[in-house]
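Customer escalation, tier 2.

The customer says the design service returned an amino acid string that "doesn't look like it belongs to this structure." They asked us to rerun it and document both sides in this ticket. The original structure tokens are below, unchanged.
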């Protein structure tokens, strides 16, 4: 089977047609696309970009992450599958009846749980066989569900247990995938990339160690503003699990980012600083700097991006709300007493979604 015959998470475009205009503008800005035009034009522009087959692995992984973030129920439930579950070796799988129905069974179970029609305990139990499953088609919806629930409970006391669940589920798969081979099929490369990305987000110790070592190399370069030697995979865990000093180093790189470099790299770095940080003091510092300190390097588009990135998780959303509560008067004065500026509307609208 040719790689193009199988739909991987980042290759779909249906999620783009569910986005509101401010989300379309933020994503277009992130990828360096023209962010002007009507909603239909923006959706068409992003869809064309997402379907381009010449993306780098980082952009493909980012598109997959966005699809996971915005994925919603797109098809009606279809139950009645009695899967023959057992340990299967890694192999490229045709979209046969078993694999497609198992994937849909997981998809429907989680959507029923979100709707309150099925207990989450049952939905979680239905994923237990995935520890032995090696069909990449069946794994696709699992990554979506891990992403969705992880963002919703990252401030809950059960989040630590959820991270342990993710590590238990994904570690055997990642170990069996092994090191990348240049001649291996695309499906295996994509599966490895997604597996490691979600392991890193859940605190996988080898990944955190690699991320910290990569950041240390960057910190020790003669001119850290010249280039970023850290792979995109490691930037988020480095800032999420790193110290305030390490996070501050990343913030300084955004502030001092040279205009001669590709600006999409700055956009990705800023989005990561905002979206991957869970400590309120980091987020407060970023908001204070971008809103109140009138820094020439922080534009209105940067503020849009920061707000959108923070609302991707419950911790960011909660911190953004607390920041507005603590600084209501100066923010109101900043954006106008008539509340008619675009930024004020976007801030309030973001918190009311």
């Amino acid at each position: 089977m040719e790689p193009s015959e199988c739909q991987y998470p980042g290759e779909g475009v249906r999620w783009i047609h569910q986005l509101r205009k401010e989300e379309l503008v933020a994503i277009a800005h992130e990828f360096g696309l023209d962010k002007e035009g009507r909603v239909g034009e923006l959706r068409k522009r992003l869809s064309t970009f997402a379907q381009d087959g010449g993306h780098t692995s980082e952009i493909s992984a980012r598109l997959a992450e966005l699809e996971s973030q915005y994925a919603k129920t797109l098809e009606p439930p279809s139950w009645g599958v009695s899967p023959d579950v057992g340990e299967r070796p890694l192999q490229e799988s045709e979209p046969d009846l078993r694999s497609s129905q198992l994937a849909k069974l997981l998809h429907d179970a989680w959507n029923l749980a979100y709707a309150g029609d099925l207990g989450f305990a049952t939905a979680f139990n239905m994923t237990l066989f995935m520890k032995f499953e090696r069909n990449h088609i069946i794994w696709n919806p699992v990554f979506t569900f891990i992403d969705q629930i992880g963002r919703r409970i990252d401030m809950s006391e059960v989040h630590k247990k959820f991270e342990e669940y993710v590590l238990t589920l994904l570690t055997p798969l990642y170990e069996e995938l092994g090191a990348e081979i240049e001649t291996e099929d695309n499906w295996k490369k994509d599966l490895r990339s997604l597996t490691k990305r979600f392991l890193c987000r859940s605190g996988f110790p080898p990944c955190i160690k690699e991320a910290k070592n990569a950041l240390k190399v960057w910190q020790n370069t003669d001119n850290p503003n010249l280039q970023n030697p850290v792979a995109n995979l490691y930037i988020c865990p480095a800032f999420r699990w790193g110290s305030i000093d390490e996070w501050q180093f990343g913030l300084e790189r955004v502030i001092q980012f040279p205009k001669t470099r590709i600006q999409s790299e700055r956009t990705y770095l800023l989005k990561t600083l905002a979206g991957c940080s869970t400590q309120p003091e980091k987020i407060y510092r970023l908001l204070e700097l971008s809103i109140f300190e009138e820094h020439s390097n922080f534009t209105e588009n940067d503020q849009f991006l920061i707000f959108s990135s923070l609302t991707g998780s419950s911790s960011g959303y909660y911190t953004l709300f607390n920041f507005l509560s603590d600084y209501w008067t100066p923010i109101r004065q900043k954006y106008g007493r008539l509340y008619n500026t675009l930024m004020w509307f976007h801030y309030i609208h973001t918190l009311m979604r």
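Tier 2 assessment: The sequence is consistent with the input. The radius of gyration is 21 Å. The domain at 207-352 is CATH 1.25.50.20 (Zincin-like fold). Sent an explanation to the customer and offered a walkthrough call.
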